[in-house]
């Protein structure tokens, strides 16, 4: 993997492209219209609608630029094409919490795709860094701000 590039799954890229498309095709024209309407009300120095529309425009333009940069600086990985006997980026990993006997499943994804509630953890998270390179049956130890954790790797797959 190119060290300058940030890893991203194909799904993560698709989500960013969808958001970018929506911002450009829907948000940007709506904001331009709102600015035009606010301008038609006269004095801009005390026009709250104009100020709000300009603020929203700044936010949207910054987000468009951010997404374009993230896509340009990403290395897109299709997890379904990975063949590895070790855990790498894109893996969906089933773990057993050695302290609670609770099973958890996480997919290792790019930073922008991470959502623990959906079982997606950032490749840069402490847990991901601990399990990358491991195999089925390995014990993984890592520290969280609250406690030390220990997991057993039950299985992993790429899909």
Summarize the structure.
With 159 residues, the chain is of the alpha/beta class. The protein has helices spanning 10-39, 48-72, 126-131, and strands spanning 6-9, 74-77, 92-97, 103-109, 120-122, 139-143, 148-157. It has a 5-stranded mixed sheet with strand order 5-4-3-7-6. Strands 1-2 form a two-stranded parallel ribbon.
Secondary structure elements and their pairing?
Layout: E1 6-9, H1 10-39, H2 48-72, E2 74-77, E3 92-97, E4 103-109, E5 120-122, H3 126-131, E6 139-143, E7 148-157
Parallel strand pairs: 1-2, 4-5
Antiparallel strand pairs: 3-4, 3-7, 6-7
Helix pairs in contact: 1-2
Structural account:
The protein has 159 residues and is an alpha/beta fold. The protein folds into 2 domains: 6-77, Transcription elongation factor, GreA/GreB, N-terminal domain (Helix Hairpins, Orthogonal Bundle); 79-157, Transcription elongation factor, GreA/GreB, C-terminal domain (Chitinase A, domain 3). Helix content is 38%, strand content 25%. The chain is built from 3 helices and 7 strands. It has helices at residues 10-39, 48-72, 126-131; strands spanning 6-9, 74-77, 92-97, 103-109, 120-122, 139-143, 148-157. Strands 5-4-3-7-6 form a 5-stranded mixed β-sheet. Helix 1 (10-39) runs antiparallel to helix 2. The two termini are 19 Å apart.
């Amino acid at each position: 993997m190119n060290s300058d590039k940030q890893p991203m799954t194909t799904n993560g890229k698709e989500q960013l492209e969808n958001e970018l498309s929506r911002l450009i095709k829907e948000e940007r024209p709506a904001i331009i219209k709102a600015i035009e309407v606010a301008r038609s009300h006269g004095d801009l120095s005390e026009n709250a609608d104009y100020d709000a529309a300009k603020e929203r425009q700044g936010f949207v333009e910054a987000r468009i630029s951010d997404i374009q940069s993230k896509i340009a600086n990403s290395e897109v990985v299709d997890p379904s094409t990975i063949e590895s006997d070790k855990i790498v980026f894109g893996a969906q990993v089933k773990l057993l919490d050695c302290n609670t006997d609770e099973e958890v499943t996480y997919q290792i994804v790019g930073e922008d795709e991470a959502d623990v509630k959906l079982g997606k953890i950032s490749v840069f998270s402490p847990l991901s860094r601990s399990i990358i390179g491991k195999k089925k049956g390995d014990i993984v130890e890592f520290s969280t701000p609250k406690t030390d954790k220990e997991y057993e790797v039950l299985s992993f797959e790429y899909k």
